[in-house]
Every structure is written in C-alpha cells, then in structure tokens.
Amino acid sequence: MPIAGRTLVADPVVAAPQRPGGYPSGGGARTRSPAQSVVATVFARDCFTCVYCARRTVVLPVLGLVSQLLPIEFPWHPNWKRDVAHRFYWDLSTTLDHVEAVSTGGDWQAEGNLVTACARCQYQKGNRTLADLGWDARRVTGAWDGLTALLPELWERAGRPARMGAWVTAYRRCQQPQP
Question: Which stretches of the chain are DSSP H helices?
Fold first, then answer.
C-alpha cells in the first residue's frame, strides 16, 4: 500500500476492537525507554518500517531538526498538539513498541519484545495484545533508513544541538556494516 497521500485527515485512525471486560492494568508497571543504541538497533533491524502496517516511518530526531530549521513550514509542539504540530508527526513518525506491553508483564528492554511501529499503530495498539487486535508483527526487509542518512547534515545545519548528538551517534553506528 503506498503511503503517499495517506494522512490522519485523509485516512483517520480507526478505533481498534475492544476486549470484552477491558484490559489488565498490570498493577502499575511503568515503561522506561531502552538505551538510544538499543532503540536505533531495533529501528534499523526493522528497516524503519512499521511491523504492523508496513508503513515507512521517519525517526523523530530528523523530524525535530526539520521543525527547528523550518518552524513555520513544519511546526512542532512538545505534546504533538494536533492544531499546532505538523500532521506528519501523527502519521509517519517512528515509535518503539513493546509487543507484549510492560503493563501486562512484557520486558521493557528485551530486543525480542521491541519492534518498530508507526505512531498511528502505536496509539491504536496501546497495551492490547496482537491476538486481541487480530494483528500480526511481520519482519520487513529493504533499504529504507527512516531518513537517518540526513541526520548528520541536519544536525550540523541546526547548530549541533546537544540533545540530538547522541542520536546522531546511535544512528551512525547502526548504519555501519557489522563484522
């Protein structure tokens, strides 16, 4: 399915089916973010493509730097407020998903429980299981890089913001051929 023209406005997020009786809360388990190197490795492994819908995604550091360089044309909001942030954030940004949600007992840092998801699928899935949703996680092959090849140049043009330096390093490492 081509992604051109597919946006939240033209193709709204469809409510996912609800599990009768609700979903377990997991007793207050909290998700923590794995190390940036792990996140970059998972995204590269999955070719920066959503394992649920096969949508090619763009990593947040690239989107953030584009917003910094072009704030009027590509606005950003820290909470992705819909009437402020560019809708690209909602439609095609790369997110890290726990296949088995941490709140239901999934490991927050095991690479086998981590996959690449587009923001739309991430929000639809929540802490539901793939079986409850009728979804499959499929491994994608290809050469899509989530526009990470542009990251070093964007970072330079934006004045090398410190908050992005670690992401530049993490994506540089996962682009290098492994022995």
Answer: 36-45, 60-69, 88-92, 119-125, 130-133, 151-157, 162-175
- Cα 22 versus chain centre, distance: 26
Q: What is the DSSP string of 64-79?
A: HHHHHHSTTTS---TT
Higher pLDDT, 75 or 25: 75
* Contact residues for 53 (Cβ-Cβ < 8 A; gap 6+): 1, 118, 120, 121
pLDDT (0 to 100) of residue 78:
79
Nearest to 63 by CA among 92, 37, 33: 92
Phi, psi dihedrals of residue 72, rounded to the nearest 5°: -80, -45
Place of tokens 């095991």: 110
Q: By the 8 A CB rule, do 55 and 92 touch? A: yes
* SS3 of residue 118 by DSSP: strand
- Residue 144 contacts by C-beta under 8 Å, 6 or more apart in sequence? 47, 48, 49, 56
Instruction: Report the predicted TM-score, pTM, of the whole model to 2 decimal places.
Output: 0.78
Domain locations along the chain: 36-171
pLDDT (tens digit per residue) in 67-116 = 999 999 988 887 777 778 888 888 889 999 999 888 888 788 888 899 99
Amino acid at 153: E
pLDDT confidence of residue 176? 65
